[in-house]
Amino acid sequence: MKAKHLFIWLFISLIIVSGFTALFYSFYIVKDVRRITADLVIENTEIVGMNTDADGLHFGTVPRKGTSIKRMIINHKQEYPLLVSIHSYGNFLQWLNISDINFVVYPNEDKEIKFTVKIPEDAPFGVYNGTLLVVMRRSASFS
Hints:
Number of domains: 1
Strand order of the largest sheet: 2-1-8-4-6
Radius of gyration: 23 Å
Order of helices and strands: HEEEEEEEE
Structural class: alpha+beta
CATH architecture: Sandwich
Number of helices: 1
Helix content: 10-25%
Distance between the termini: 49 Å
CATH topology: Immunoglobulin-like
Strand content: over 45%
Number of strands: 8
Shape: elongated
CATH class: Mainly Beta
């Protein structure tokens, strides 16, 4: 008889835990992941070369001690807030500053993110590449 009660108790516990797990994940589902390429060229020049292509964050040609800024707007038209996190990978991250890497975008709101690259005086000349992952998850709260 004890084994039967234990089995029933375990079965009910499993159903309750599964229900709470499903409820939790239904509010924190990954809605979208965007992979954005990023690149820049450091040359021995005083001229900044601009790249206005919209298919990535192309910082262009930047001289030593130079700065290049790009902006990205995340707009959101759904009925729920999004939790957004930005992850960066590449060989020029030590020079990259991202204005916000973890934030909430509320319904019908736009969020501008600023990406700034400041090249040090001793940076080696060359081509640098990176990738940004923008992960958007559904948030459970409007606060």
